[in-house]
Structure formats: structure tokens, C-alpha cells
């Protein structure tokens, strides 16, 4: 079962994306290993207080990303970590500069991540 998955209904991030990103983080962080079974969509939806379709969308995106596979009888199983494209030197330097600026300005990590997510989706920043 996926450890510590939560949904913040007050967050501007959609619930399916919160679920998807937490499970992906657990896989990338080694908390979920290849072969581990995820909770059924119904069980996770009930635990989180969201619609089954919300969990289905999260699982579908995880499957499209190569992190999990849904199979009859065995449910949704972790397949492993997808290959990531290499990060260029400019992107790494920009990320390092962002972290330094955030630390100097006293901005917390979650706010920095929110700003980056907003920039990636074309939304407004905080």
C-alpha cells in the first residue's frame, strides 16, 4: 500500500495530480518498489474522501508515465522508474539559483514548488 498519501482540498493543485505526484515521489524515492501493489481505486478513493474517477485519473497518468501497470486480477502494480531525460546545465544552474534566492528571501520549499508548478502550467505565480 502506498505510504502517506494525502489530498489537500484547499490546494490549487487538482486532487488527481496530488495523488499522482505523491505516488510518483514514493516510487522515485524507493518507498514503493517494482512489484508493489497500489491500493484499489475504490479503497484509496474512500481513504482520501475523493471520487473513484479522481484516483482512476491519477493511476492512468502514472501508467502512461511508465511507473505502474494495471492488470486484471493483480490490480495496479509498480513497474519501476521511467527513464528521465538528462537535465541540461542551464536548467540545473537556474534551479540552483532559484533555491539560493528562495533561501535568501526566506521562502519555504512548498511555496517555491508552487511557483515552479504555476510557471510550468502557465498559471499565475503567488
What is the count of β-strands?
Answer: 2
Question: Could you give the order of strands across the largest sheet?
Answer: 1-2
Helix percent reads 40-55%
* Span between termini: 34 Å
- pLDDT below 50 for ≥5 consecutive residues: which ranges? none
Report the portion of residues in β strands.
5-15%
- Class by SSE composition: mainly alpha
Arithmetic mean of pLDDT: 88
How many H/I helices?
5
Shape: globular
Would you list the SSEs in sequence order as H and E?
HHHEEHH
Whole-number radius of gyration?
16 Å
| Main sheet summary | 2 strands, antiparallel
What's a quick, concise take on this entry?
The chain has 126 residues and is mainly alpha-helical.
Descriptive labels:
126 residues; mainly alpha; two-stranded antiparallel sheet
Amino acid at each position: 500500500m502506498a505510504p502517506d498519501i494525502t489530498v489537500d482540498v484547499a490546494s490549487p493543485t487538482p486532487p488527481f495530480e496530488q495523488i499522482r505526484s505523491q505516488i510518483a515521489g514514493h516510487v522515485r524515492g524507493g518507498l514503493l518498489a517494482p512489484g508493489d501493489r497500489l491500493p484499489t481505486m475504490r479503497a484509496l478513493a474512500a481513504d482520501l474522501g475523493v471520487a473513484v474517477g479522481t484516483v482512476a485519473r491519477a493511476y492512468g497518468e502514472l501508467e502512461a508515465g511508465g511507473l505502474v501497470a494495471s492488470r486484471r486480477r493483480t490490480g495496479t502494480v509498480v513497474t519501476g522508474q521511467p527513464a528521465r531525460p538528462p537535465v541540461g546545465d542551464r536548467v540545473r544552474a537556474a534551479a540552483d539559483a532559484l533555491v539560493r534566492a528562495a533561501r535568501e528571501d526566506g521562502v519555504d520549499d512548498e511555496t517555491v514548488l508552487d511557483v515552479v508548478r504555476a510557471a510550468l502550467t502557465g498559471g499565475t505565480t503567488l
